[in-house]
Write a structure and sequence with these properties.
Largest sheet: 2 strands, antiparallel
Structural class: mainly alpha
Helix content: 25-40%
Radius of gyration: 45 Å
Distance between the termini: 96 Å
Order of helices and strands: HHEE
Number of helices: 2
Strand content: 5-15%
Number of strands: 2
Length: 223
Amino acid sequence: MEQTIALTQDTVNLVKAHLQVLDQEAAFLQANQSIGGKDKAYALEELKSISAFYATRLRQIQEEKLGLTKRAQDLEKRIRQQQNQLREFQQAQAQVSGEVVLTVEAEAATKAVFELSYLANNCGWFPNYDLKVRSIAEPIALGYKAGVYQNTGEDWNNVRLRFSNGTPNESSTVPVLPPYYLPPVPPPYSYQRPAGIYNPNVRQVTGKITDENGEPLVGQISW
């Protein structure tokens, strides 16, 4: 397929080269339409013959250019078709496929039903919303649909689908998000303060530590 595309492209290049030659010939004829000179006169028959030559040749050049342009367009269209076929072939070769071989042993002839479950990448779905309004006096009807895509290489014709918003490869444990405190609010301490003891407006505290009898504790000082 690649060689065919290359050969077709070579043909297109030859056609375009022929078109350039015809353009140059037409430019040459148009640049030399002035015949004769001050000292030379042509008979009427000679002028008719020269004029007919110019007209005939220029008409032939235009016809040839039209034919070559059409051929180049057809060839370029064929190249695009060949490139599309090549891409489809390469995509088909790149698809991953596999086989499951099941070996069953039975002591006697019996009927059995086997169910095979597996996870496949390259497939999923995305939500689509369909809004419909009949009149401004009625509420909007919201339809919830699912757009399914899959590149598994298997045909999903007549397949019963069930949709989920979970990811099979991820853990189902809900993560714990710690709070983030913006300054200047300080983060809380790790222990629980008794309610009603801490007063942020108090900057200085004085007193002394005593036991249950009101006596100062040994080794303690007042502050």
